[in-house]
Amino acid sequence: MGSKVFKKISIIFAVILVIFGSAKIYSSYISSTESIRNTESAEQDLDIIVYSKAGCIFCIKTKELLEEKQLHYKQIELSNNRDLHLKLATQTGQTTVPYIFINNEFIGGFQDLQNLVKEGKL
């Protein structure tokens, strides 16, 4: 139970940092968190957040891939949140959706997620 509460607090903290554009604090926070764990269990303790837009084919493929791998994720919709999208673009250097974070570490978009799966790292 404590682990779930910690994850929720971590997500809220990360979202607040993204919203307020504190890239320096956010990057320090990311570097202090755990790396992606490579385990065989489908019930991994991975904290996955997908920032997406409605109708985006790569966002749809991302969600399908995560569901196929039986990985739980949280989706944050950017279609009506231009400010958050701009802040994510500024902080990550990526301008396209989806933005995928695993354990508070930005991993990139759909192709980056697909590469992690192919390499057996997810």
Strands, helices and their partners?
Elements: H1 2-19, H2 23-32, E1 48-52, H3 57-68, E2 74-77, H4 82-92, E3 99-102, E4 105-108, H5 110-118
Parallel strand pairs: 1-2
Antiparallel strand pairs: 1-3, 3-4
Helix pairs in contact: 3-5
Write up this protein.
This protein has 122 residues and is α+β, with helices and mostly antiparallel strands. It has one domain (2-36, 44-118): 3-Layer(aba) Sandwich (Glutaredoxin). The protein has 5 helices and 4 strands. The chain has helices at residues 2-19, 23-32, 57-68, 82-92, 110-118; strands spanning 48-52, 74-77, 99-102, 105-108. A 4-stranded mixed sheet has the order 2-1-3-4, with helices on one face. Strand 3 (99-102) and strand 4 (105-108) form a beta hairpin. Helix 3 packs parallel to helix 5. The longest helix has 18 residues, at 2-19. The protein starts with a helix and ends with a helix. Residues 22-43 have low confidence and may be disordered.
